[in-house]
């Protein structure tokens, strides 16, 4: 491997790390994309992370520590085998854009902050550290450490290059493993090899149990999560994913904060209430200009707006698709991964304009607005959505007239009405105007729909879900209390056929399109009638119709013959139509996709006419 | 009926006629809405048409002519019986908004321009006129006449109050009956009663045959229509409705002008090429301010833009709905009531701004933009569509780099990309910014979709079709020439099963939503594959994707068993998905509506695998 080649790759890596978009592409090229949003660390300098080692140590699996100032500790470098391929890949992916030689820093220091007793029972030459010592190397220390297995790593020099950004510091002072359980992409030899470069010691044997750190010393990343309302239907606890109970969905136009569905990809970041107004959002324009606004400044300087809008997970009703088509991957939401609230905050477009973006002509480089949250989640929306004067995109501080609950983004979240909720980034702390989409897996992979037959997922083939298609659901069915008495000459009623049934539910379409008709069938779709749409328009706020339409229906149960099992079942069906006359597909099979996204087929609820 | 009451109604009528929106509502209240767009005539003064007679002649069916200056001719006034109910209705509909008394003109003159020989064989005291004399009272004469039956009417005083506006002059100098055949709403006693007020004579007996004017003297309203390309599939000749032949639809991205589908509601207005730049468009703002632009002025003063956009009739594929669901009313289009062209003209929003409309804040009164064409067709779009900076709504002069063909609106038409073509008014000569939709039947009735069960059509229940939903169609299927030879031990192939079939077609979604996936099934929807989308993006112009996506597919015909008739049929199916992941409904039954609008279900084409 020639020196010019190394220098070239180094240049590219250096550029990559010094420019988030490029770094993101790089990371993506490396096929380790779970956390691929590089933030520009303020405290940690960005450094290329494999170049130095790869070029200097082309052969030996055991190399001397490159930092002459540190103690003679040994680093294992199995990374090299991977690196060769990696560099080839980099060379293929990145064409040179500049031939200016750039000096690659080599004096990277990884020295631990304190002398440690050598407890080298294995003869590995590594010092041993007590968990209490390691804990001192937390997120706020000058030299953050993490534990993996029984080894201790000084990640100081890695933080700046970590594709997930400073979120890695969440693990500092303790074990990184609970986080790798969340960000499963890390569980690869490739990532372990990177980490291995930074080993500084081992956990002291007194703090090990069966060769691993004591369990009670490993912090649960979710330990600070808020308590949730018991009415929420929990699907996963860590991270919290919980849906609004079905029979409360259409109960009120605005979903109460306590029962608003929760979709967390990770833990809930902790922002102290007294510090909320100091929380900052960094805005980066395509020309590299950066401006930071505190929440307090946003509130004080920009006009506040109220918008009522539904948020809906792309996986809402996924369980239906599993049931009527076949197995889908992902959280098995029923009908409750949707809620409606009144949001209050400042318009993103106003803030972007203030930050220096031309709303009239954002320019070719300004095609997407990328958001990152405190917990490392990231996503983006097209620039047109962000600056649309009628788009109502907010940086929201309030939800239903109260400060945002922690689960919903305290102290500030993005709200993108009419779009999939996955773009409404919570705990937002960074906004980048870019020529490309956010490079996170949540933008580029998770939220897409392939054809019903497509098993090979070519991620670039389809667009990320943004504006949502139309859907509807039955949320409650009940028999109306019987008032008629069967004439005496008739046999007593054995089924509910002929009785009145009351049904209620919601219908919603994205893009600000209003629901204009909800069709109901009590016999599986053979005959139709129209539901009564509730008029909630007085509560609606915003330039377009961003809200759901609640509906009710009363109808007579059809006569149903007993089936082979002696059951008398019928199926209630709902389908809706919006003002662009979009309607729902009939079957989940026809829209099946492995991820179970956008399970918007007619909603069917089986109803047993006996034993009612 | 008291005098104050009459005065009040008079005031209301006067206001109504002097203000088009109000007059339109009035006309609608009278339930004669076929032609309900009142234009403000420049030549003919607007006058209330029933008040004078109704209040002055409350009882007698035969009243003396109110104009003392004219000859003592008798007018039958059966209008009165209707008028009493009418006035009650008016009183109910219009609450007084002003109590200022307004003088109602009474000296309306209806005298014929020339003395005529009395040929009073019937003793009716009416003069007789030769057809040649009547012809002199054409549209450009000071006193236009029309013939109805064998009677002659001087409509001079009616033109200003005619709800359809000056289009009535199209009939001047000849018989009005061919026009009533088009505008069938006129065929009522009520309308005949109005006309009867203006009788001035009868057709001379020498020009009558069986009591009616000689047929060759009755002008065909369509006599000046242009010749059409013989490749167009004519559905009706008068007016011309003709679709693009299926196998030419996906042949080119831009449909040639000659084979672009034609949807005319009436005749094609005649505008001389040398006069094209003098053609005027009147723009009326909510405050009543009126500004007129000539085509020449529009071209000279405003920046011209090119936009490629599909136009599609809401009835495209209606024949499918008839076939797969049940009978629908309306033109039985197959897949060819859709075409794509490059349009060139000025932006409507630029012109409206110039005319004085505030684009930033149009105001509460500016909710719709109503368009009228020379032939009396009218429709409207929401103000948001009209002024959307990314809406690309044009006043277009050119189509595929040539002047608009006469069939497509020469010299100027509206183009509203992403919306139903019924809003893209041709031969436009008037634009009114209003607080309400156009009151024409084409806006308020014809283009709506009711539920599959709804037989009673409550027209106010649903919104007019504007932005179009997603659709797709197969436009051509053919077997690929066979290259394989059956192995000698096999029987000769008796069906096409196993052979390659080539399919092509289009997919389109309204609202600027791009098609991102086209699914094809060769077995009726059991199995799916994806079509290849043709890349026509280089030809696309506009802020959003207003065009169709052409696609092709090659697949192997499935094995099909013979049916009871010895046929081996399979069904090809296409369905598309746009970038908001809207998709098509599966069956026409589920979206059935009596008018057969928006027949967007999966497109199915039966294919007989034998005898190929």
UniProtKB/TrEMBL annotation, chains A, B:
Question: Which biological processes are named by the entry's GO terms?
Answer: sulfur compound metabolic process
What are the record's GO terms for cellular component? mitochondrial intermembrane space
Q: Which InterPro entries match?
A: Cyt_B5-like_heme/steroid-bd (IPR001199), Cyt_B5-like_heme/steroid_sf (IPR036400), Ig_E-set (IPR014756), MoCF_OxRdtse_dimer (IPR005066), Mopterin_OxRdtase_euk (IPR008335), OxRdtase_Mopterin-bd_dom (IPR000572), OxRdtase_Mopterin-bd_sf (IPR036374)
Q: Where in the cell is it found?
A: Mitochondrion intermembrane space
- Which Enzyme Commission number(s) are listed? 1.7.1.3, 1.8.3.1
Among Gene3D superfamilies, the record links this protein to: 2.60.40.650, Cytochrome b5-like heme/steroid binding domain (3.10.120.10), Oxidoreductase, molybdopterin-binding domain (3.90.420.10)
Q: Required cofactors, per record?
A: Mo-molybdopterin; heme b
Q: What class of enzyme is it?
A: oxidoreductase
Q: Which residues form the Cytochrome b5 heme-binding domain?
A: 126-204
Q: Which UniProt keywords apply?
A: Heme, Iron, Metal-binding, Mitochondrion, Molybdenum, Oxidoreductase
Matches recorded under Pfam families: Cyt-b5, Mo-co_dimer, Oxidored_molyb
| Region Disordered: start-end pairs | 104-123
Pathway(s) annotated for this protein in UniProt: Energy metabolism; sulfur metabolism
Report the protein name in the record. Nitrate reductase [NADPH]
Q: Which GO terms describe its molecular function?
A: heme binding; molybdenum ion binding; molybdopterin cofactor binding; nitrate reductase (NADPH) activity; sulfite oxidase activity
Query: Catalyzes what?
Result: nitrite + NADP(+) + H2O = nitrate + NADPH + H(+)
């Amino acid at each position: 491997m020639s020196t010019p080649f190394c220098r070239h790759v180094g240049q590219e890596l250096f550029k990559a790390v010094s420019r988030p978009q490029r770094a993101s592409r790089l990371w993506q090229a490396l096929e380790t994309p779970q956390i691929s949003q590089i933030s520009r660390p303020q405290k940690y300098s960005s450094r290329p992370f494999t170049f130095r080692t790869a070029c200097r140590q082309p052969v030996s699996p055991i190399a001397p520590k490159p930092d002459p100032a540190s103690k003679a500790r040994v680093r294992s470098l199995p990374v090299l085998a991977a690196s060769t391929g990696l560099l080839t890949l980099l060379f293929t992916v990145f064409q040179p854009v500049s031939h200016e030689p750039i000096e690659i820093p080599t004096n990277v220091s990884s020295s631990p902050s304190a002398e440690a007793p050598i407890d080298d029972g294995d003869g590995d030459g590594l010092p041993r550290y007590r968990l209490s010592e390691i804990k001192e190397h937390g997120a706020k220390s000058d030299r953050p450490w993490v534990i993996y297995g029984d080894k201790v790593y000084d990640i100081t020099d890695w933080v700046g290059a970590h594709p997930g950004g400073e979120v890695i510091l969440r693990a500092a002072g303790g074990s990184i493993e609970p986080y790798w359980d969340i960000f499963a992409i890390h569980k690869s030899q490739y990532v372990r090899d990177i980490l291995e470069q930074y080993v500084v010691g081992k956990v002291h044997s007194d703090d090990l149990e069966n060769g691993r750190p004591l369990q009670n010393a490993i912090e649960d990343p979710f330990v600070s999560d808020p308590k949730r309302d018991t009415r929420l239907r929990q699907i996963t606890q860590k991270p919290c994913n919980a849906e609004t109970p079905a029979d409360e969905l259409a109960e009120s136009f605005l979903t109460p904060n306590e029962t608003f569905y929760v979709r967390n990809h990770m833990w809930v970041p902790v922002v102290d209430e007294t510090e909320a107004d100091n929380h900052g959002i960094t805005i980066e324009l395509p020309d590299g200009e950066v401006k930071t606004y505190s929440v307090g400044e946003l509130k004080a300087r920009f006009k506040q707006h109220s918008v009522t809008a539904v948020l809906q997970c792309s996986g809402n009703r996924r369980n239906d698709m599993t049931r009527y088509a076949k197995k889908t991957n992902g959280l098995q939401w029923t009908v409750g991964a949707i809620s409606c609230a009144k949001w209050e905050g400042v318009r993103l477009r106003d803030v972007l304009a203030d930050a220096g973006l031309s709303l009239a002509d954002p320019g070719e480089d300004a095609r997407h607005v990328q958001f990152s949250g405190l917990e490392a989640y990231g996503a983006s929306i097209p620039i047109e959505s962000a600056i649309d004067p009628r788009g109502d995109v907010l940086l929201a501080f309030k939800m239903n007239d109260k400060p945002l609950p922690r689960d919903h983004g305290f102290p500030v979240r993005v709200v993108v009405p009419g779009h999939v909720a996955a773009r409404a980034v919570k705990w937002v702390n960074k906004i980048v105007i870019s020529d490309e989409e956010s490079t996170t897996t949540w933008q580029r992979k998770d939220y897409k729909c392939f054809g019903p037959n497509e098993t090979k997922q070519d991620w670039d083939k389809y667009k990320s879900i943004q504006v949502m298609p139309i859907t509807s659901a039955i949320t409650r069915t009940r028999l109306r209390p019987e008032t008629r008495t069967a004439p005496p000459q008739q046999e007593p009623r054995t089924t509910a056929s002929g009785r009145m049934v009351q049904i209620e539910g919601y219908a919603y379409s994205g893009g600000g399109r209003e629901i204009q008709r909800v069709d109901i069938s009590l016999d599986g779709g053979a005959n139709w009638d129209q539901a009564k749409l509730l008029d909630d328009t007085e509560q609606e706020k915003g330039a377009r119709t961003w809200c759901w339409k609640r509906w009710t229906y009363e109808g007579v149960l059809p006569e149903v013959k007993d089936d082979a099992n002696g059951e008398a079942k019928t199926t209630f069906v709902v389908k809706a139509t919006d003002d662009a006359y979009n309607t729902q597909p009939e079957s989940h099979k026809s829209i099946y996709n492995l991820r179970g996204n956008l399970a918007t087929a007619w909603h069917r609820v089986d109803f047993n006419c006996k034993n009612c």
